[in-house]
Write a structure and sequence with these properties.
2 copies of one chain form a homodimer. The first copy, chain A, is α+β, with helices and mostly antiparallel strands. In chain A, 55% of the residues lie in helices and 12% in strands. Chains A, B: Belongs to the acyl-CoA dehydrogenase family.
């Protein structure tokens, strides 16, 4: 069984040094988040994830969720871990103190999130979905709804679930068919939902489903879709639980990975109709969902980072232990652990430097969320919100693509043993495979990036980001050992600028040009932004070394940054070139000749 | 269930037009391989793979090989398919007529091989391993051994297996421990082997194991290893079967993919010792194995191509059928199949152009094998043999890396359904994951390429290849529509040359420099060689169009070549750049600080 030790040193570096927690903690509402307290929280989350969640990761794979009658039986141990999680208050880490949450800055909650997802991605989806439901209710629920549901969802006593997809409505939710028929001040829902993560289970006392459905006279398309609260057990006015609602889980999907997470087919209203309560106004359901989309997508991006970190730790442990072959160039020496072989080292360094860049990017987006919410200056809030909007599809798309690649590298490091399920390396790859798909496929992220985040503001948010990254790079000139890094870093930046320019010139008028290579643009933006953040990290590390620190962490930071520049950043140019070629070759072969 | 239709049009194009079968069929020993006959063979192999093997692919995954007592029960239907395969003479497609084989040119046998592996990779491993054993015996067996074993192995009446790996001896076979104790003119073997593909089954009457083992007084290291024939049933002088030998399969591995292929733990000599017959001389076992390594590695590369093709066909079928979303830029139009969306098209075109480049490369290596064996001119034979030696690690490494990427893209095209096992898309990814690992990990391929194939001849074989590719590109200037392609193609070639130069200058003296980025060099060589072959294909296609052909295939060929140049070739530069940075960042973090 593989262990998991949360990489708290790098987390603290990113939070404290790279992103400046101390200044963040000056913002109104975040005053509690002093570095000492945050350090203690991170250490405690590390302990919980390593000791409680990580040991259940493998059994989640081999003895996944099962449907027994109409009951979903979670993996043995999952419910107990959930109980401990709730009792420790972790479920409300990011939630507002108003509803009993810890009110941690998003940047700190993101570190905790990374740990839950690294240690047990399938399990971690349960609180992750609850958080999404909390967010939607917080923004759009009535006061009555908030007071009835939120506190228990924040504590974790009740879980949440999000019911969007139907067999014919996946990427395109506008064609949803589930019906919601008004009955007094509530509704009766009828229909089928699929791909409902943790849609049914017994880990919490109640499950609050947020369900997208269509009212009888609603117009076709997105404007006819409303959002409903459909609790598993109806909730009495005093908060106590009443009758079981009329829905059931009719099947669990048999999936490639995350076996511990029940993916439910849900049937609503097989009898008298499931009772639902309208959230906000009719016809605004999809818009409400989108308000929480940023956070949900951010969390999926963090999953890409998290699963890569888990795979890295397992690969390093194996490579240090597995003795095979002599050191290169020393035929007569004794056999050594494979971590000594340059190609194995290359794989491990690829994983490590990608992980550090992903962490810097994902946490940086979280810090922007914090400022966007808490900064006293409205202009600054707006600026940070547009930064968040820009970064979200990059975090989701780039980190989940890299998550997939890095878990696959983790398998490769294990050689033949990587292909054997008992080793556990393959599980990470199988688990990681979902992240580029759910919460909006990466194709959708890419189109969102180019269509909504780039073309709509004519590239302004991107130009602001590029300017900031350029500053990061320029500051390297102050530190002699890093001055030479400016050239490749600036080259990457120029490629991003050129591709941006190309899309602004060609994509606005022609949506096929905008979307044919939007994937490449998303990856390009990820590599270059990652590079700018790695450069900033290296700057801080070099400063610390120059100031006399002998913490090996700083030396390692310089090494991973250099490796990133040499081996990951060069991919940016390939993506930039593909963008510049436009759509003609992409669309050249007609669909029926493919 | 997904269907498989062998891509015979592209296969025939590569064999006949790109590689010039007609000239190949003038070589002594290949005279039978006239285009008409070869076309008929390909069509028949296409039928067999589509109708007999492909329908068994899914059940191989869901109801894989099982160990029942000491008997390995193959997937239901596999044995019957094997029987039909044998009766149709396919098992001996590539084998010499001297032993009852068809004696097909390797380039044609490779097309058949691709079809077996596309239609059913797990099943296809059984004849693939037999072919390896045939090859080893043909080169190194005594006349008596050949007459006793070869004919029945060529027919498929008996299967073969290769027993190399032990728990402590994988990539480094020099530390093999299995003992072979002489007893008269034979040996008794004792020891354990792992990862033995199709090491035990009942599909054939007998299984001829080729086992690496160490004789009692043998020196340590590779020179102490000998090769033994260890048949499941001892063979009497008249070829009839005698006693069951003293070995057994003690366990099957529980693997990520290729569930239909039993991966056996083999125990030799639990009782009186397994009877084995020495092949060739003592101490030369590993050298003998290496004589058949080229072909085995080539076949694994073909698996990468094959599984990508299967995934592509399934992704195209789904993308043409799954209706979701409106055409980009037409919000009010009716929903369309997702194949119309540019990003989906990009994924499908990525798969298709990569597949065509892989096919051109793998078949081209096969054509070189044919010339290396059959050309009357010794110099030409030597030239082609060095070409084969150079290309093999590229075919194995590059095609299996792309196989992995393309099967993963196949999953992505399916969206959420791709993650559901019943869809079958995930199986291809799981199956594909082994190919970069077995038959020498891709790290070993990369080191072989740089160490043995590049540095040893001081880059000569590579320079010859580059010169040929340059001619392919130069010829584009004759055809106006393609003249503009020369620039990016030549740029790729220059990157390959520069990286070659760098490795020759820095790698010869420092094996760490040679191997730290050998993976990138292998990938670079793959992309650039693939580009040169795509360019040649485009040249021929344009010529055909200019000559009046209205076969849409040629138009498609131009599109895939253009797409390849725009979207895959740019990756070459990223790999080249990583090579040029050398080993310092790769090795910067000490093993115990990883």
């Amino acid at each position: 069984m593989s262990h998991y030790n949360a990489p708290t040193r790098d987390m603290r570096f990113v939070i404290n040094e790279l992103l400046g927690l101390e200044k963040l903690a000056e913002l109104p509402g975040l005053e509690e988040a002093k570095p000492d307290l945050v350090d203690a929280i991170i250490e405690e989350a590390a302990r919980f994830s390593g000791e409680v969640l990580a040991p259940l990761n493998r059994v989640g794979d081999t003895d996944g969720a099962k449907l027994e009658g109409e009951t979903v039986r979670a993996t043995p141990g999952f419910a107990e871990a959930y109980q401990q999680f709730v009792e420790s208050g972790w479920n409300g880490a990011a939630a507002s103190p108003e509803y009993g949450g810890m009110g941690l800055p998003e940047v700190v909650a993101t570190a905790a999130q990374e740990m839950w997802q690294s240690s047990n991605m399938a399990w971690g989806l349960c609180p992750m979905l609850t958080a999404g439901a909390i967010e939607a209710l917080k923004h759009h629920g009535s006061d009555e709804q908030k007071s009835l549901y939120l506190e228990k969802m924040v504590s974790g006593q009740w879980a949440g679930a999000m019911d969007l997809t139907e067999p014919s409505a996946g990427s395109d939710l506008s064609v949803i068919r589930t019906r919601a028929v008004p009955e007094g001040d509530r509704y009766r829902l009828f229909g089928q939902k699929i791909f409902i993560t943790w849609g049914e289970h017994e880990m919490a006392e109640n499950i609050v489903h947020l369900v997208l459905a269509r009212t009888p006279d609603a117009p076709a398309g997105v404007k006819g879709i409303s959002l409903f609260i459909v609790p598993k057990y109806l909730v009495n006015a005093d908060g106590s639980l009443g009758e079981r609602n009329d829905y059931r889980c009719t099947a669990l999907e048999h999936k490639l990975g995350i076996h511990g997470s029940p993916t439910c087919v849900m049937s609503y209203g097989d009898n008298e109709g499931a009772i639902g309560y309208l959230v906000g106004e009719e016809g605004k359901g999809l818009a409400y969902m989108f308000t929480m989309m940023n956070e949900a997508r951010h969390k999926v991006g963090v999953q890409g980072l998290a699963i890569a970190e888990r795979a890295y730790q397992q690969a390093v442990a194996y490579a240090r232990e597995r003795v095979q072959g002599r050191p290169v160039g020393h035929k007569d020496a004794n056999p050594v652990p494979i971590a000594h072989h340059p190609d194995v080292r290359r794989m491990l360094m690829t994983m490590r430097s990608a992980i550090e860049a992903m962490r810097a990017l994902a946490y940086s987006a979280a810090a922007s969320m914090d400022e966007a919410r808490h900064h006293p200056d409205a202009e600054r809030r707006a600026h940070q919100q547009s930064r968040v909007d820009l970064l979200i599809p990059i975090v989701k798309g780039w980190c989940t693509e890299l998550g997939l690649e890095m878990t696959s590298l983790g398998v490769q490091v294990h050689g033949g043993m990587g292909f054997i399920e008992e080793t556990g390396a393959a599980q990470h790859l199988r688990d990681a495979r979902i992240a580029p798909i759910y919460e909006g496929t990466n194709g959708i992220q890419a189109n969102d990036l180019v269509g909504r985040k780039l073309l709509r503001d004519n590239g302004q948010a991107m130009q602001t980001l590029v300017a900031e990254l350029r500053q990061n790079i320029a500051s390297l000139s102050e530190l002699t050992p890093l001055a030479g890094w400016q050239q490749p870093l600036n080259a990457g930046l120029e490629q991003l600028e050129a591709a941006t320019e190309w899309l602004l010139s060609n994509g606005a008028a022609d949506p096929v040009q905008a979307t044919a290579n939007s994937y490449h643009y998303m990856m390009l933006a990820g590599y270059v932004t990652g590079a700018g953040l790695m450069a900033r990290g290296a700057f801080l590390a070099q400063q610390a070394i120059d100031a006399g620190s002998d913490d090996p962490f700083y030396r390692q930071k310089l090494a991973t940054a250099q490796f990133y520049i040499e081996q990951l950043l060069p991919r940016a140019k390939a993506h930039a070139e593909s963008v510049s070629h436009g759509s003609s070759a992409v669309m050249a072969i007609p669909v029926d000749e493919l």
